[in-house]
Amino acid sequence: MTHPAPTRRDHLSTALTLAARGVPVLPLHKGKVPFANCPACLYTSCGGRPNMKIPGPCRCPRPCHAWAAATTDPDTLTGPAWSSAWKQAAAVAYHPGGVGLTVVDLDHADAVAWARRTLPATRTVPTTRGEHWLYRGAMPSVNAVRDGVDIKSTMVYARWLGPGTGTMTTLPGTVRALIVKKPSLVRPVTAPMPTGGGECRHRTSAYLERGIAMAEQRITAATSGVHTMVYRTFLAVLSAHGRCGCLTDAHAARLFAAAQTKGESPRHCADAWTNARTALGM
Q1: Could you give the angle at the alpha carbon of 236 between the alpha carbons of 230 and 241, nearest 5°?
Q2: How far is the C-alpha of 275 from the C-alpha of 278, rounded, in Å?
Q3: Which three-class secondary structure state does DSSP give residue 281?
Q4: Which of 106, 161, 169, 187 is deepest in the core (most CB within 10 A)?
Q5: DSSP symbols for 114-131
Q6: Do the beta carbons of residue 199 and residue 241 sit within 8 Å?
Q7: Side-chain half-sphere of 69: how many Cα atoms within 13 Å?
Q8: Cβ(156)–Cβ(67) under 8 Å?
Q9: Which segments of 4-108 does DSSP mark as H helices, in order?
């Protein structure tokens, strides 16, 4: 027996049901992509990963971009800002990290077989080509941790494909370990340094050293929203220490190394650094 494809009204009804349960949701266009960003918050004006056009958190009153637009507010979901989006919606998505979940996205049969051998059993949801394994607990999101395996939790969205079957279990260390990079893998990156010329407020080298050490600690202590934390930390460091010429390549390398141990790539580090400098007019 074949079942009719969900209608636009069905998608909105599903979204409202999920929102009532505390799950942040948003509509998806054809091709499983979010609807266009609003001009005021386009891509990375709020932080995020510019090369991937992935935005950071935003307080814009309108539903504006990707996972950051996910909401549990029924007035937003049914309001005029999203009325046209639901008319065109092809699917419903949700923000796993926003409800304290992690989705292990298994994209093909070999990936599913690997998960069954390796990961603790939990709730599973069938997908077009594989399965979603859902765990209680949030973590940074990383794609391609191995062939056919993506981690979807904070700062990403996942398609809602139904409640699934089985008992959801706590996020295990085996999943968290998939994104851990050994320190030896950290690659040095040359960051553009400010030219200086501003007033130096350091007085002693200890002030600068303390600032860099605190920044490293802030990045390494992040348990979620790592992309945004890295950008905001770079912004803070450059704001406090970047205008007088005291900040060196060695200082930037320490911050980049801390970010890379949390799963950031050298390119993402360089992009976040450049964006922070641009935001400060450096």
Answers
A1: 125
A2: 5
A3: coil
A4: 106
A5: HHHHHSPP-EEEE-SSSE
A6: no
A7: 27
A8: yes
A9: 8-20, 74-78, 80-88
Amino acid identity of residue 49, one-letter, is R
Alpha helices, DSSP H, located in 145-187: 173-176
Please say whether the dihedral angle defined by the alpha carbons of residues 248, 253, 258 and 263, taken in this order, is positive or negative: positive
**CB contact set of 86 (below 8 Å; sequence gap of 6+):** 8, 11, 12, 15, 27, 77
Is residue 67 within 8 A of residue 155, CB to CB? The reply is yes
Distance between CA atoms of residues 126 and 176, nearest Å = 22
What are the phi and psi torsion angles at 132 (to 5°)?
A: -105, 125
Query: Are the CB atoms for 157 and 34 separated by under 8 Å?
Result: yes
Q: What is the pLDDT along the chain (282 residues), one digit of tens a residue?
A: 344 455 566 899 999 999 999 999 999 988 788 876 555 555 445 544 444 444 444 555 555 567 778 889 899 889 887 888 888 899 999 999 889 999 999 999 999 999 999 999 999 999 999 999 999 998 888 888 899 999 999 878 999 999 999 999 999 999 988 887 544 334 444 555 555 555 556 555 677 777 888 888 888 877 777 888 888 888 888 887 777 777 777 788 888 888 877 777 777 787 788 777 777 776
Name the H helices within the chain: 8-20, 74-78, 80-88, 109-118, 173-176, 205-220, 226-241, 249-261, 266-279
Cα 25 versus chain centre, distance = 15
- Please tell me whether the overall predicted TM-score, pTM, comes out greater than 0.70 for this model: no
